[in-house]
Write a structure and sequence with these properties.
This protein is α/β, with parallel strands linked by helices.
Amino acid sequence: MKEAKIAFKKATSEDKLVPTESKQINTIDLKEALKSHFGFEGFKDEQEKIIHTLLSGDDVFVIMPTGGGKSLCYQLPALIKGGTAIIISPLIALMKNQVDAIRSLGGDNIAHFLNSSLNKTEITAVKQDITDGKTKLLYIAPETLKKDETLDFLKSINISFVAVDEAHCISEWGHDFRPEYRRIKAMIKEIKDVPVMALTATATPKVQQDIQKNLQMLDATVFKSSFNRDNLYYEVRSKGKKGEAMKDIVSYIKQRMNNKSGIIYCLSRKKVEEISSILQANGIKALPYHAGLDAKMRADHQDRFLMEESDVIVATIAFGMGIDKPDVRFVIHYDIPKSIEGYYQETGRAGRDGLEGECVMYYNPADAEKLEKFLKDKPVAEREIGELLIFEMQAFAETSACRRKFLLNYFGEEYNDNKCNGRCDNCKHPKEKMDARTEAVLALQTINSTKSKQILKITVDMIVGKKSHEVQLGGLDKAAYFGKGKDKDENFWKSVLRGLLLNGQVTKNIETYGLLSVSEKGEEFIKNPTTFDIALDTKFERYTDDDDDSGNVEMIYDEELYAILKDLCKQEAKAKKLPPYIIFQETSLQEMAFKFPITMEEMSKISGVNIGKAQKFAKPFLAVIEKYVIDNEIERTEDVVIKSVVNKSAKKVVIITNIDKKIALADIARSQNMKMEELLTEIENIVLSGTKLSLKKYVNDLADEENIGYVMDFFRETNENVVEAAMSEFGDEFTKDDLHLMHIHFICEMAN
């Protein structure tokens, strides 16, 4: 390693650290610089060596997990060295976050960013500060860097070094490949050939190799920290049918993570909006965050999350969030990520302060199939890489081995799973193991027979004798080992092969990613088989979008309580001189006998009951339910009192909005291409769901107050087939649509 050429004068209260020429860097000086600029007493892990190497003028490649302190590795030398450091980053949110943090230490001019969020006036001001020598760090997006005007400007200034953050974006084998990253080295050379630092939190051996080749830094000093985050707990849960995972998430946050910061990742913007709305409806302070929101709203939501005005951010995986928040206590993946690198980076946002962090993923095999379908129109090479990355993610979800060991093995790091100490679901609740040494030998021999030219999936097909398209294409159905293991199912053989990979007896070829080969350790195992204990991988149920929504699944309610509540409803209706359905509909009573609500808040989460209706009618019902729960020693579960968001389709929203504006019903029906009968049915459904509408104007247009009063009195005394009965009584004066509208108004006024 070269000796550094910079040393530092000790900072006084009047000045910052000033670079001075010298033959070497004194370690104490670096620690004083750290204390002066950041207030830290000492460096973490290899930070000091990394900074020393960069200041020596050498290229540096830093592989360090999220929360390990990567940013300080370029921030401190940038503040120390003369000139401006260029920090290339793809995450606009992270740029803003880090610039704000640095400015809090050294003023508004010390750090800037250049990206698409700035207007021309702001860009001019940034460039002026840099030209005047006031700016030590310039964060820049690769899309901005490639512009001729940007390159021309950077040629005119003194650049200290270039740091390429999120360097995995360079590799097409990485989880977030960005083609513009491939041109970074050429652009740097065009500006000024200065030292380069590449940084990433997620890189397999193949991705590491790609980064070094592309940035032409094969001679760089590599600092690779352990990928192990021992304060994180990893768990995978079955996603179940529609709505089941959502109930579980609300229950999880309210019971275990109440008022703690967390992030929920989804694959689509629609799901982000839906989940954030459901969380809000259940009293959880949540905000959406995705690329479909305008920049101002995204920044506002990010700031509110950082300032703890919101507990949960729901975000799209594809957009990514560069949020540097140390006290995120949980990260939930509602959808399976596209790769283990993506999963690792996103879960790495939990527990960055070193305290507890929980990482929960909901898995449905059908979700992985959806991801594969998204790849069908991609170029062949990109599609094959994408499919392999998804397959690895499925392997992580389904494995019964230590999840921590699986993750670290993926990144080329060995780990003894005895050290996990129950910090993943598989180690906390281990499955029964079996000795599969004979089968392991067969699997290894099968791999050798293919001359290491097949991936895991095809190898499994071959062993079980499955004539898949790939097997037949390669003529493997004629091979000696075809069908040798047909007495066991595919899941068994996947478990064996994944176990061999974790134990190092099988490796994946780094250049032809995914192809299996037998290692020296594996060859020795074939000759001298020893105990090979495995637990079979978990089989997750596959659910499709056509499966019934959990909200529509028939409830197994307590029939005895339901009968009590029904009698009570009749008593209350008689006392108030109202029909029983105005107090509570039968479906609402059944749900009460299923969910056992005992507070106003819980009652307001029952379908067809809003807070107004609960306050008006619920008190005696809550008392009866609570007594029934105590007398019968019923154990209530929180996860069954989840309030759903009313499914307001675009049509329903238009109807509600137009009624608020007092638009004529005939005009609303015409604009929505509906018959009046259809419109009234839709309005009735909206009212029955608990939404209160102002229909008085429409009703008053039908008749005078006295005649309307006669109809309303009739409704009070009629329990069944109300509109039909009203037609028999008032059919000469009103149409069926008129009476239907008046009945809806009656329900709205009396029930809601």
